[in-house]
Design a protein that fits this description.
This protein is α/β, with parallel strands linked by helices. The chain has 3 domains: 263 residues, Metallo-dependent phosphatases (Purple Acid Phosphatase, chain A, domain 2), CATH 3.60.21; 59 residues, Double Stranded RNA Binding Domain; 51 residues. The chain is 32% helix and 21% strand. It is built from 11 helices and 19 strands. The chain has a 6-stranded mixed β-sheet. Strand 17, helix 7 and strand 18 form a beta-alpha-beta unit. Helix 5 packs parallel to helix 6 and helix 10 crosses helix 11. It is elongated, with a radius of gyration of 28 Å. It starts with a strand and ends with a helix. This is Nuclease SbcCD subunit D. Belongs to the SbcD family. InterPro entries: Calcineurin-like_PHP (IPR004843), DNA_Repair-Maintenance_Comp (IPR050535), Metallo-depent_PP-like (IPR029052), Mre11_N (IPR041796), SbcD (IPR004593), SbcD_C (IPR026843).
Amino acid sequence: MRLLHTSDWHLGRSFHRVSLLDAQAAFLDHLLATVREHAVDAVLVAGDVYDRAVPPLAAVELFDTALHRLADAGVPTVMISGNHDSARRLGVASGLIRRAGIHLRTDPAGIGTPVLLPDPPHGDVACYGLPYLEPALARDPLGAAATTHRAVLAAAMDRVRADLAGRPAGTRSVVLAHAFVAGGEASDSERDITVGGVAAVPAEVFDGVDYVALGHLHGAQALTDRVRYSGSPLAYSFSEWRHRKTTWLVDLAPDGGVTAERIDCPVPRPLARLRGRLDDLLADPALARHEDAWVEATLTDPARPADPMARLAERFPHTLSLVFDPERTEGDGGPPSYALRLRGRTDQQIAEDFVAHVRGGAAPDAHERAALHGAFADVRADASVREREVDG
């Protein structure tokens, strides 16, 4: 049986205020093309279909279109809810949608009931959907031993193994789960799920099944031959700039053996992280390859340059993020305490120090010092007038 494993679509998400809806639609076009080109038998979507619990209408419409296209393709699809999704909302009409071959698994109560994927003459493949399990909410329904991610996933897998034990010998099994499994490499764009206990669970929790299709981490990775993250189809933070965005094309052999290859997703625009002084970034010919990329620039100029974003945009028109990290001279010690820095200093000196701080060390010039002096004089004069009015 051939499976296409994907996850973390995050429909409706933007990238530094740039809409990704067209790029997400292009990915779904690619998904359907991959299904046809590679004769996929079933599609697995391991959670975070949407980016938030109440997604924008355009994202809902895109998802609706994807469901219709998957149903028209006649390929069974199994989806679970992730920590970004509202399980109740995503699961609306799941019973009706199931008739079209789309299986939405969002309710922990159904964990032990698999979707049976026919694979003649080798027998059915039992596909179990484990939606994201918030420990505080899932502990009691699952009878977990503790309010932790490990405990609730262990309880869920006990139900999976119990059902599998009652099926014909040699029945192959697949589990979809949305979790942070130990050994996985995270990025900046995954929402923290440590609330409710330590987030990471060991891969051994999933022992006893042939393939585990994971969602949550945005980088494609194989923790073992049988336990894999597909990663997100698009980059959702600059921390993913080195990611190769793919889906997993998984072949499940009649004896349960697993082979997998990565299918590249379309890239709307490459990412680049640049670092250096502004003038160097603008002049370096080696950076020409990044001129069409979405850019995060970290400027190391000792003093903050004038109009840095506008100047960067002249060469890198798709600059989206600007960070300042001024160079420090060798031997700089740590800053003194706040109280020590203020001790014995006048308001004027404190203000001048603040200006120098926000400009990366460039102290105010004579004109700026005069403007500060005048401002403080005006404040003191105004305070004196108010005091006389009160005394009078």
